[in-house]
Design brief:
The complex is a heterodimer. Chain A is mostly helical. Helix content of chain A is about 70%, strand content about 0%. Chain A has a two-stranded antiparallel sheet with strand order 1-2. Chain A is globular. The relative contact order of chain A is 0.17. The longest helix of chain B is centred in the C-terminal third of the chain and has 16 residues. The radius of gyration of chain B is 18 Å and the shape is globular. By secondary structure, chain B is α/β, with parallel strands linked by helices. In chain B, β4 and β5 form a beta hairpin. Classes of the chains: A mainly alpha, B alpha/beta. The interface between A and B is medium-sized, with 19 and 27 residues.
């Protein structure tokens, strides 16, 4: 008996040592090494000067925050979010082309597009995706609440079906495979930030503004309104909320509609900023999952911090890697995931369900 | 011949094929009633059956003021005027004390309870209004669970083992509160193992054994009869020490 106990003590001690060693290696590889690179080697890579600029002005991370509303709100693992994103983008794209015309092989230019030609597709794309989200929730998901695996499988299936259904839509668009929604003329210009003379595109400021606005309103909604309290309580204990005379199914449907609408809106803005093409949905979904893993499920603040970290890591590593190797920057994104999970397995702000 | 407040008739409940309730029938006209019984006798299943909380399959009839409850969603049952204080309190860890109370929308019709009145009833809760549900002591948690249920403005309050895990002084305080509520005309259905609490709140005592109502008695009779206590509750009889 004593021998077994001694063995166990030895094992625990060993594993503690091993854990320490593991942390040491992790810190060395992911903190010390990149720091040394940045401080001593990066200037020679030729991209150092532009690094900080590129890191702060990639609005991708803010867009991802939009995407993650639903994860934060309801712990629904909605794998169809990427498809919703692309769908919202396509609806807006088609609408804009119908309003303005097909344009050249490269699509429309912002000279041809007025503010209305952009806002109207934004609105319609968002609303339609919200309705499709509601349909999906009512028909498929409400029967499987709290069953993460089933929900994930159902939404993956829907995501694949939606993506395939969107394929024929490409033919009608003309031009190349990747298409983008055109910014209105109003936004497509540079503004002087009066910070060491930096000229900055207004479109990026618009994206930033929308993202911050949505982040703040979501927080206020969840924190201060009765609906927000009910949503948070419902995530904790659905049956108990119901036994207090509150129709939790209705509240969850509202939350799901909001989440889907944000995915649609994200698609329209993403399609204006970057471009829309088959497969883009999977990319965005991957980013948003990474953000949720980093930030932690069930936390809106976590989604914001996670997306900021992801964006900064992606951009900094792209800028500091030797110019022939910038496409390896994606690896650092997953290094970030590995480090966060090693230290906080539930994500930075995650709580157990 | 007016309808009773609550009429439970031939109710059976099943978890898959395991039967948890067997032909349970009783009526409540008003006032306070308690259902006592040991662990695993189906007391909580009965609560869930009345409140429409899954997962048990329920057959039979449960009527509240003549309205059939079986098959109705839980929130509609609560809206009819039944407040529920569940076993284990079931507070929401994500919400503060204040948010627990403010999330409830008052039932149309009876608007007797407000958040301020709850704080008046339980001053301790007001002191801790910013604290999270999980940071409270057992007694404070129970007060919050009761306050939350009262805010739905119920005419019938169902409480499942409110004394569970609480110190005797807190139990005394809760008994005082329940008596106050009883005097205000609130009907209370108390599910308890704690004989002291059950008998000091309700005169009418229903005894539950193995999923059925085995006996109906009064608080006085139950307290006087150690044999009855031993048979149905398996407790060391309260009266025995004095006998």
């Amino acid at each position: 008996m004593a021998a077994v106990a001694a063995q166990r003590v030895k094992l625990t001690a060993l594993s503690a040592h091993m854990r320490l060693a593991l942390y040491a290696v992790l810190i060395l590889v992911f903190v010390v090494f990149p720091l040394v690179w940045i401080l001593f080697l990066a200037p020679t890579t030729g991209t150092g000067a532009t690094t900080f600029g590129s890191a702060v002005h990639d609005p991708k991370d803010f867009l991802i925050t939009l995407l993650n509303g639903i994860f934060g709100l309801m712990r629904v693992v909605n794998m169809a979010h990427g498809a919703f994103f692309l769908l919202g983008g396509y609806i807006a794209l088609k609408l804009q082309r119908q309003l303005v015309g097909q344009g050249s092989v490269f699509g429309l230019t912002s000279d041809q597009v007025t503010l209305v030609h952009w806002l109207y597709p934004v609105l319609i794309g968002t609303v339609i995706v919200a309705l499709i989200g509601l349909l999906m929730q009512q028909v498929f998901l409400r029967w499987n609440q709290g069953q993460d695996l089933r929900q994930a499988l159902i939404t993956i299936a829907i995501s694949i079906i939606l993506a395939d259904l969107m394929l024929p839509g490409y033919k009608g668009l003309g031009g190349g495979i990747a298409q983008d929604i055109s910014w209105p003329k109003t936004f497509d210009k540079f503004v002087n930030l009066h910070v060491s003379g930096i000229q900055y595109t207004l479109t990026r400021l618009v994206i930033l503004g929308i993202a911050v606005g949505i982040g703040v309103s979501l927080t206020v909604w969840l924190k201060w309104t009765r609906t927000g309290m009910v949503i948070r309580a419902g995530v904790d204990d659905r049956a108990m909320v119901s036994a207090l005379g509150i129709n939790i199914q209705l509240t969850f449907a509202i939350a799901f509609v909001v989440g889907s609408a944000l995915a649609g809106l994200g698609g329209v803005i993403g399609g204006s900023f970057a471009s829309l093409a088959p497969g883009v949905d999977a990319n965005w979904l991957l980013y948003s999952l990474v953000v949720v893993i980093i930030g932690g499920m069930g936390s809106l603040g976590g989604a914001a911090v996670g997306s900021l970290l992801l964006g900064l890591t992606g951009n900094f590593s792209a800028a500091y890697l030797p110019s022939n190797y910038t496409y390896y920057s994606i690896i650092f994104t997953f290094v970030l995931v590995a480090v966060v999970l090693a230290v906080k397995p539930l994500g930075l702000f995650g709580r157990p369900a | 011949m007016s309808e009773p407040l609550l009429a439970v008739e031939d109710v059976n409940a099943y978890y898959d094929r395991a039967q948890a309730l067997e032909d349970v029938s009783f009526e409540i006209a008003g006032g306070s009633t308690s259902i006592i019984g040991r662990n695993g006798m189906g007391k909580t299943t009965l609560c869930n059956a009345i409140m429409g909380i899954p997962p048990a399959g329920v057959t039979g009839s449960i009527r509240y003021k003549g309205t059939e409850l079986v098959g109705r969603p839980s929130y509609k049952i609560a809206k009819l005027g039944i407040g529920y204080v569940p076993q284990g309190r079931r507070l929401f860890p994500s919400l503060s004390v204040d948010e627990h109370l403010r999330m409830i929308s008052p039932r149309a019709g009876g608007r007797r309870w407000t958040v301020d009145r709850i704080y008046e009833l339980f001053p301790r809760l007001k002191e801790r209004r910013r604290n999270g549900g999980a940071q409270l002591s057992g007694g404070e948690q129970q007060m919050l669970a009761i306050g939350r249920a009262l805010l739905t403005n119920p005419e019938l309050l169902i409480m499942d083992e409110p004394s569970e895990g609480l110190a005797p002084t807190i139990i005394e305080l809760l008994i005082e509160t329940f008596k106050k509520l009883d005097e205000e005309g609130l009907a209370i259905l108390l599910i308890e193992q704690n004989l002291g609490m059950a008998t000091s709140i309700a005169e009418r005592q229903l005894v539950m054994v193995a999923g059925s109502i085995a006996a109906e008695t009064t608080a006085a009779q139950l307290l006087q009869d150690p044999e009855l206590q031993r048979r149905y509750l398996g407790v060391e009889p309260l009266a025995a020490e004095h006998a």
